[in-house]
Hints:
mainly beta, 26-stranded antiparallel β-sheet, elongated
Amino acid sequence: MKRPDTVPEGAVHNDTDKEWLLGEANENNQRIGHWKIWHTEGYLWVSINYRDGIPPYPTQRFHPDGTISQDGEWYGGAKYVGPVRLIKSDHPTSEYFPPGNDDSIWIAEFDYVDEYIYNAQRYYDKDNREVSSDGDPLPVRPHNVFARAHFVQPASTGTSWIMGTVDTRIARYIGEYLEWDLDGKLLVKRLYSTSGKVLEDYRYEFEGKLSRSSLYDKDNPQDAEDTYYYSGTATPVAKISTVSRKQNKDVISTYFEKTGQELYSIRKEELSPVHKRSYFNDELVCEGHLSSDKGGFPESAVYYASGGSKLIDFTNNGDGTGIPGVCTTRAGKCYANLA
């Protein structure tokens, strides 16, 4: 490979990565000191200060025009820790810059806490003034909004400040996540799994009071506990709590007074697509075997009084008609309703 004139003598060509390298190594063949890497086209591509061979290594990448494209502290492999700054160029370049932001965004900065994972993001215009991801000037940050939260233009939700940890491998939030409105009132608090699934979700009214919470099973997200809360109470008081189990086939809704006293509960249980039960305060009140034909007569349906005695026992005649049997308490017998 012919060495470009811009690459110093002594630089070694790496055929695998298609680059020229120049730097020193110690007696253990470990890179030390200042290393430089040139692109095969001849421009300085990467500068790494290995110092005494112990990370972190201050690292910079460059655009073909010689301006910096990336600046951060590298730990080897794909691991960066601390702020990593990505910068655009006025000229054509193959260097990466995160998409999806306003054209006025010139610098994007991410605080990495581990390999591929960052917990803060900041944006700047060409004059190095911090702005939102939409390119708008930042408002005054409320005192209770954490410094690593970033500003977004309020949409219909009213969210203005967002704080969360992002795993770039899955492009999802992980761990704790928070949202505030423009004045710093908490709107949303979530907890994500390491795979980006929501485990806990808390919603707050604009005065900062808890209005709804959702807790999800980490293995079966359809299994969840949803709770709505009364407004105007000093501390959160549940109004309706719904627990879904067995992939939403066993659902219990419990209703409460504003004092927190339980009023009653309703349970819907699906044993099969055609076999269903309903409960009131844990007592079975109805059990039915539905028709496999949508809209058809049920095969059978039984309604129960408190204590378990039958009230109505419906029998399908098999010809599109049925007989509702009205049950008496005498020996538990049911008689056909001939009215």
